[in-house]
């Protein structure tokens, strides 16, 4: 499954009824795991290794410390798991303290004032107080998720852009599968993959992702040369093309490409490119 990004796998799992739960210092292990569930639906718990920059040794100390006693707060966790300032910042940014400190901003505040580990304090009860802070909104949480985890368990980013894209007459990927072959259509999405097989005679295959799934785009060599900048530089790509339907397989044969990356603002996405 290494061909697909973690974000793609999570989005697909959620669309198929699999519950995916966030990184949480009170339950997550280093690796992503299956959890017991009350219902028949499978449940996946994201591992601490999803947090970019987080070390395995620190994660193992967290797991060991909580096995002895539940954490009372971030300061307690920091001391008993011997976490440094960077470890704490990464966990706060990833919203992994939600069970012990609330939302990201509350966790960030506590992390900023947490005391440096001091052996003289070991074993002493620790009490923490925090100010009331406004929780991040949906867009802020989404941007933070992608920055720290490379994915989100909240709404797909394209959901927040759908109104703007609809005004530009872009349809969802799922709608393409309901349209007849040879119909002119517009679709836009995150570029998740670009491929140019050696046997393709210059044809480039692009995969777009939106809140409903994937759209397969074929870009023939002449267009690829004319719009090389849009093709290779866009993270959010709009495509005007003609549908080619063969059974359940649907491709959009590109006639024009539009770079809409500016709509993403500070949201960072990445693609897997094989050229």
UniProtKB/TrEMBL annotation:
Residues 17-107 form the DNA polymerase helix-hairpin-helix motif domain. InterPro entries: DnaE2/DnaE/PolC (IPR004805), DNAPol_HHH (IPR029460). Its EC number is 2.7.7.7. It comes from the Bacteria. Transmembrane segments: none annotated. The keyword Iron does not apply. The keyword Cell membrane does not apply. Keywords: Nucleotidyltransferase, Transferase. Gene3D superfamilies: 1.10.150.870. One of its GO terms (biological process) is DNA replication. It holds the Pfam family HHH_6. One of its GO terms (molecular function) is DNA-directed DNA polymerase activity. PANTHER family: DNA POLYMERASE III SUBUNIT ALPHA (PTHR32294), ERROR-PRONE DNA POLYMERASE (PTHR32294:SF4). This is Error-prone DNA polymerase. It comes from Candidatus Propionivibrio aalborgensis. The lineage of its organism: Bacteria, Pseudomonadati, Pseudomonadota, Betaproteobacteria, Rhodocyclales.
């Amino acid at each position: 499954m290494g061909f697909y990004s973690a974000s793609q796998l999570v989005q697909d799992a959620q669309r198929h009824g699999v519950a995916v739960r966030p990184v949480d210092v009170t339950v997550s292990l280093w690796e992503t795991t299956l959890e017991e569930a009350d219902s028949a639906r499978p449940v996946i718990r994201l591992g601490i290794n999803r947090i970019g920059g987080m070390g395995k040794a620190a994660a193992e100390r967290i797991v060991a410390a909580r096995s002895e006693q539940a954490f009372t707060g971030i300061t307690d966790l920091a001391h008993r798991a011997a976490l440094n300032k960077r470890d704490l910042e990464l966990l706060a940014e990833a919203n992994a303290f939600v069970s012990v400190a609330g939302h990201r901003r509350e966790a960030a505040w506590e992390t900023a004032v947490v005391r440096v580990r001091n052996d003289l304090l070991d074993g002493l009860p620790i009490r923490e107080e925090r100010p009331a802070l406004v929780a991040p909104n949906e867009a802020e949480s989404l941007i933070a998720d992608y920055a720290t985890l490379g994915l989100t368990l909240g709404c797909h980013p394209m959901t927040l852009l759908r109104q703007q894209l609809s005004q530009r007459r872009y349809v969802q990927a799922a709608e393409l599968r309901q349209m007849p072959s040879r119909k002119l259509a517009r679709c836009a999405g995150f570029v998740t993959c670009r491929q140019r097989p050696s046997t393709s005679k210059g044809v480039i295959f692009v995969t777009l992702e939106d809140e409903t799934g994937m759209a397969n785009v074929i870009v023939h060599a002449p267009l690829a040369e004319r719009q090389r900048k849009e093709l290779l530089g866009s993270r959010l790509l709009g495509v005007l093309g003609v549908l080619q339907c063969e059974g359940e397989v649907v491709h959009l044969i590109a006639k024009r490409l539009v770079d809409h990356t500016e709509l993403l603002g500070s949201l960072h996405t990445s693609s897997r490119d094989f050229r």
